[in-house]
């Protein structure tokens, strides 16, 4: 069992519900449709990966190197991807767009892809 994956999965899950409600109720009046869609994308990806981390937390052992890499890739990817979107959308809505966050979103996406690729690799090695 990997406690770090379980902790982050639970935290990301709780925050995605909070941010989703925040977006649906408070930001809906401030954001354009495009901005709201972007914010919702961040929330969805955060929740998807919260669920993945919870499942992996019960299946993987963070003391095994590949398992640790998978867990860390999903944690780092979720933080960089979703939270940079939140920052971009909210700062843009306040006419103070934090442009430095723009390149961080695809970097987060790369970490998420890396997590999935490592998971596939683990399956291939384990089941062959």
From TrEMBL:
<keyword id="KW-0812">Transmembrane</keyword>
<keyword id="KW-1133">Transmembrane helix</keyword>
<comment type="similarity">
    <text>Belongs to the UPF0382 family.</text>
</comment>
<dbReference type="Pfam" id="PF04241">
    <property type="entry name" value="DUF423"/>
</dbReference>
<dbReference type="InterPro" id="IPR006696">
    <property type="entry name" value="DUF423"/>
</dbReference>
<dbReference type="GO" id="GO:0005886">
    <property type="term" value="C:plasma membrane"/>
</dbReference>
<feature type="transmembrane region" description="Helical">
    <location>
        <begin position="47"/>
        <end position="64"/>
    </location>
</feature>
<protein>
    <submittedName>
        <fullName>DUF423 domain-containing protein</fullName>
    </submittedName>
</protein>
<feature type="transmembrane region" description="Helical">
    <location>
        <begin position="6"/>
        <end position="27"/>
    </location>
</feature>
<keyword id="KW-0472">Membrane</keyword>
<feature type="transmembrane region" description="Helical">
    <location>
        <begin position="70"/>
        <end position="89"/>
    </location>
</feature>
<feature type="transmembrane region" description="Helical">
    <location>
        <begin position="101"/>
        <end position="124"/>
    </location>
</feature>
């Amino acid at each position: 069992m990997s406690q770090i994956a379980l902790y982050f999965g639970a935290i990301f899950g709780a925050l995605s519900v909070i941010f989703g409600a925040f977006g649906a109720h408070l930001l809906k009046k401030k954001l354009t449709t495009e901005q709201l869609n972007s914010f919702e994308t961040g929330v969805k990806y955060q929740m998807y990966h919260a669920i993945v981390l919870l499942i992996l937390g019960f299946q993987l052992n963070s003391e095994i190197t590949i398992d640790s890499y998978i867990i860390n890739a999903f944690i780092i990817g979720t933080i960089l991807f979703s939270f940079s979107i939140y920052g971009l959308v909210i700062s843009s809505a306040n006419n103070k767009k934090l442009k430095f966050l723009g390149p961080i979103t695809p970097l987060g996406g790369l970490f998420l892809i890396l997590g999935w690729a490592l998971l596939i690799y683990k399956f291939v090695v384990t089941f062959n």
